Automatic annotation (TrEMBL):
Taxonomic lineage from the root: Eukaryota, Viridiplantae, Streptophyta, Embryophyta, Tracheophyta
Quaternary structure note: Part of the 30S ribosomal subunit.
UniProt entry keywords in alphabetical sequence: Chloroplast, Plastid, Ribonucleoprotein, Ribosomal protein, RNA-binding, rRNA-binding
Lineage: superkingdom: Eukaryota
Gene Ontology terms: biological process: translation
GO cellular component terms given for this protein: chloroplast; cytosolic small ribosomal subunit
Protein name (Swiss-Prot/TrEMBL): Small ribosomal subunit protein uS3c
Similarity annotation: Belongs to the universal ribosomal protein uS3 family.
Source species of the chain: Talinum paniculatum (Jewels of Opar)
Compartment(s) where it occurs, according to its Swiss-Prot or TrEMBL record: Plastid, Chloroplast
Pfam families: Ribosomal_S3_C
Keyword rRNA-binding: yes
GO terms of molecular function: rRNA binding; structural constituent of ribosome
KH type-2 domain segment(s): 47-118
Length: 218
């Protein structure tokens, strides 16, 4: 049967870059990997605690990490940085202190930059958070998917596919529902496709959301 591969890993080196850029000797590699995970988790938790949003969207599209010998450079791509920064001029400073506590890096400097994305709803992570918020509020899943597709159409993407799996609407038997708009050429390596998988904890169980967005062809 069709073997599905993660579209981001499939396109590494052509239209997709790594989200972490650093080099490590084989014996230190796992430490570096865990460190990256810690940084990402810490930032996500901090943003979750400190943003007051109605729709439940944190708005982090992706977090890029670059490491040099004496410096860790973290770039956070956010859809709505205002939510994190307003009323709190030292938002980034607090975040930095938090991450440094988590890592206890003594001899390395930590740099955190926040970059705003022009069209937030063209990013699968932000969309998935939006759908998750809707599902938690017991909106019917079809409505949520259609709304999400409307939002991406404003972001001028060429195609989108959304898949929700699990006990949809609290039914006893789990199923998979999906919806596609435009074209999503997963086989074409030239096609720049953004993808994300996101889990939602609802009252009646865990649902999985997968989103593929076809941005453009090179």
């Amino acid at each position: 049967m069709g073997q599905k591969i993660n579209p981001l890993g499939f396109r590494l080196g052509t239209t997709q870059d790594h989200y972490s850029l650093w080099f490590a000797q084989p014996k230190n590699y796992s430490e570096g990997l865990q460190e990256d995970q810690k940084i990402r988790d810490c930032i996500k938790n901090y943003v979750q605690k400190n943003t007051r949003t109605s729709s439940g969207v944190e708005g982090i599209a992706r977090i890029e990490i670059q490491k040099r010998i004496d410096l860790i450079q973290v770039i956070i791509y956010m859809g709505f940085p205002k939510l994190l920064l307003e009323n709190r001029p030292r938002g980034v400073e607090d975040l930095k202190i938090n991450v440094q506590k988590e890592l206890n890096c003594v001899n390395r400097k930590l740099n955190i930059a926040i970059t705003r994305i022009a069209k937030p709803y063209g990013h699968p992570n932000i969309l998935a958070e939006f759908i998750a918020g809707q599902l938690k509020n017991r909106v019917s899943f079809r409505k949520a998917m259609k709304k999400a597709i409307e939002l991406t159409e404003q972001a001028e993407t060429k195609g989108i596919q959304i898949q929700i799996a699990g006990r949809i609407d609290g039914k006893e038997i789990a199923r998979i529902e999906w919806i596609r708009e435009g074209r999503v050429p997963l086989q074409t390596i030239r096609a720049k496709i953004d993808y994300c998988a996101y889990t939602v904890r609802t009252i009646y169980g865990v649902l999985g959301i997968k989103i593929w967005i076809f941005i453009d062809e090179e």
